[in-house]
Amino acid sequence: MSDDKDPGALSRLDVLKGLRLSTWEGVWATVWLMLTSGPFQVGFARQLGASDFALGLIAALPAAVGLLQLPASLWIERGISRRRFVGFSAISGRLLWLLIALLPFFAPQKLRLPLFLLLLLISSALLTVTMPAWTSWMSDLVPAESRGRYFARRNTLAGIVAMLVPLPAGWALDLAVKQKLYDPRLGFAALFVVAGISAVVAFSFLMRQPEPTPTPKPAGESPLKSLSAPLADPNFRRFLAFAGAVVAGQSLAGQFFVAWQLDDKALGLPYLAVQLLGAFASGASLGSMPLWGWLTDKYGGRPVLMIGAWGTLSAPLFWLFTSPTHPLWVNLALIVTLNILSGAAWAAVGLTQFNLLLGLAPPEKRATYVAVTSAVGGIIGFVAPILGGVLMTALAPLNIHVGPVTLTNFQCMFLLTDLVRLVALVLLRGVRDAGSESTRDVLGRLVGAGSPMTLGPLRRLSGPSDEESRRGAAQRLGEVGSPLAVEELILALDDVSPEVRLAAARALGDIGDARAVPALAAKLSDLAAGVEEQAAHSLGFIGDWSATAALTRTLSGPDASVRIAALRALARLGDPSSARALVAQLSTAHPTRCELACAALAALGEKVPPESIPEASERLLYLLAPEVDRGMRLAAARTLEALAPLLPEEAFSLLTKRLDAETEPAVLARLSIALVHQDRERAFRPVLSALDRTSSSRLAYRQTLSALADTLLEPGTLYRYLALEPMARDDAVSKLLSHVEGGSAVLEPFSQGDPKSALSALVALAPTDDALRALAARPDPTSDDALLGILRLSESPAPTTER
User: How many whole angstroms from its chain centre is CA 726?
Assistant: First the structure.
């Protein structure tokens, strides 16, 4: 394909076409990779006579050529065609494996391994130099806001291939290597020929991908300055240290995880078994990749990378407990578990580390940043496997039993790998990503997601689906209270369907995440949305004070139902800054709004600002006028009860006058409590005078009596006894009177249901107590009155009062 024509800026259709082609190129490239790496590469090397040290060297060679990316990045910055450079370098490097396939047939025995190492080095070099150009190309092609989801989808398809392709290949190779049915050389040669065919197919897809015009580099910049620019960035240096530690954590013992499974002196598993077990890692990677990509696009790469880095610590620990002496099922169970954990974890690391690198690098310098990262990784990736091979050889005689674990050279390498990965995790904490949220917040949302089934509704809500499915998805997300769904539900507030909009607004309230406040507040005045009332309700349930201003503005809006919903929401919020607007609603012209404003002020209680108290007191006392509707009087009385400690001194006499004029028992009870809260010392007489007017309601009577008791006793004393069952109360009274001389004279009539006689006996025991005399003088006292008198006597046997 000729690319002499400069494509310039690509259209959206060109971009979509390029992404589809890149996905298929990745699929076929993965076929080549799976047939030439991992167990097949280790097994081929063992067939050529590779020792443990040679295995370390084999793992090191591909990394050793990483430094070639530095000149490659400078070459790319000169403006050459990235597509042509990547395509021909990649196909050349991959087809070299056809020559590798011929080594066992034509090369002398002593030269086979050295020639393999040489060809592997050349192949790795050709593939490595493509990385800066390919990364620059793809970062220009893939929209930044979709990178997580795109590469997750691309990696998912590649993961399916990585899981399936090695299975028949492993089975076929077992027939030769393990069962000796045919020459193993033919088995490996067949794998490498199939790999070569897949490389050609991948090349054909790659060369058809469109290439956007690259971002030009600064004019006149020297090569040395271009290469040193990334190292001058402190945040990138921190990322570089982390990336290097990740490479060390992967490559130090990478080949020996495979060798531990394959070697006859270790676990001795067949190739097919190793590939089947590896399929669990691929399956976990596949299953988790959409989640990682989606989370990356929502919250940024760093928190997802941190979660993945934590997960990578688990696998080496599980490998410690595998042993040739264990039953097969034990080893299989351990390997399956660790492969699932590590598969999901490395999927997160692989996806987000790449995306984080793209995000940290300036667009015109991405090739250089990638090259520097790969060069450092190449140096570490070269040294670490060789060091691993040296350590494996040096520790070969080791055989120590520590509990259930036998420490050999393999186990020591596994432990060392875990330590290096822990260091990488610590280094990652220093990397800053302006576009990412904190790891703690993301973990909190994952933990609060409700269940893994949350992803189903999320996909239905964010993808193409019918109206009923979207409405049901929003409803389900609200039921499970998943904070992961907030962004999708916010978008659904603008859905074409009114039912979906309503369900989304309700779900956001159920979830209670403050991130939804701005969007819901905007809907309070959006008549086209038709969710104003539900938006107000949801803002109240979220409970964030940042919604107060929007809700108070709504109180002067045109829709009565929305105003009412806003008042209810303000009552839930309890924000003191809403007091002024609430006081303005205290008018008999709008009874419902007035009652709800009273409830909201009552919810504020002592948080009402002092500057709002005078006007609130005046309006509330006016609402207690006899001609005012009973509902508003009761609402005002409840509010005065909550605000009583804040009321001005002169309010006491006005409140007493309203109490004297009141006839409704429920209102009398609340006003009595308000008076006591304002001034216990002066409230006894007015509350006592109101007591008889509450007798038509037993509950109101007991509430008023409890308020009266709080003027005579420690607040709440009578309440504790009013809640007792009759027998328990009589038992408690007998204990109280047992400490009072002459108490039996009170106990007998009280237990026989004669409260008037009990009160008379109390007065006889404390003739100077005006409060007891006032209670006894009532025409028709109840047993509760007598109980109050007994508590009064037991707490203060001979009080004198001026009440």
Answer: 53
